[in-house]
Design goal:
The chain is 9% helix and 54% strand. It is mainly beta. It has two domains: 239 residues, YmcC-like fold (Beta Barrel); 83 residues, Sandwich (Immunoglobulin-like), CATH 2.60.40. Strand 9 and strand 10 form a beta hairpin.
Amino acid sequence: MKITTTTFLTLFIVANLNAQQASDYFPVQSGFKWLYRTVPLDSLNIELDSLAFYRADSFSTVSIYEGKSANILLSKSGPLISLPLQPYTDSTFYSPENTDMFEYARVGTLATVLSQLDSVLNDSNFSFLDFFRSLEDWYSVYRFDQPVNNQYTIFSVDTTINIQSQNVPLRFKYLGKRLNDETLQTQIGTFDCKKFVIERSVTAYFFFEIVSLEDTLWIAPGNWIVKSFVPSANVDLSLLGVGAFYIPGLKMDIQEPAVFVENQNEPVNDFTLDQNFPNPFNPSTKINFELNKSGFVKLEVFDLTGKRISILVDEYLHEGNYTFQFKAKNLSSGIYYYRLSADGQVISKKMTLLR
């Protein structure tokens, strides 16, 4: 069969049009926000619902970071009621290039754990913290055109540490695998997702596994990660004289964005919520709000863990100004949150009880 130049060019163009571009799976512009419910898993990967918390991500901006144009995500975690008032505490950097999504590997919040490992190791010639900082760089983590079920190496690095006067070789591996696409039903819709498993592992003597963490992720077009599942993992540090323990797993699912209002200091369209007075208070305080239109209203008080303490209003109200009193009966000193919701909109503010 003779293939003409025109036929070849046509096939080439069609193949490139069908290629999965990494940028297709990320929000088009900054300002996009995600809200996830995160549930810890015990050693048998049973969900611990009583310990569930929420994570909020915000697509902050696009800027040059370490030589690449980066989509910068800010993150924070905590109880749903207090999350809008918390500052962002972490950041992640992504850079789409053709069919690959690069991620910048940073030590970040792992610095404390690595420092603790260094104190246990007590090797003047090696530092886990310094070693991982030396690996900070851009890596092609998510490869959207990778053949299904073919594992690829993101990086593999060998080093040696000294334990009880013996040199122990260690291998750190960062691996990826694209699984079969999967249709996933979520709180914000049904998506045809790309599915990946990202594995991070440490082995000693190239066969003794110290730890292996596997993160399965579902990535939806235009929405990025909508689900993640990391099973609990055993850690064997007997070589360091520490023994064995396990790292709890995590299950993370995207939630309805309507339950989360990011900027709590600005009024929403239908009502405003004032700061309670007095604040700090003991034993009671007044909460004032104004409704711009009639509707069903709920005013609730929560503690720092997200446990509801009181429901002050739960009824249909006409437009106008309202003031309700909150009495802190049998409550200890501390920070509490009050939340006003109406017509799908929410505002939260914090108040302080001083006994």
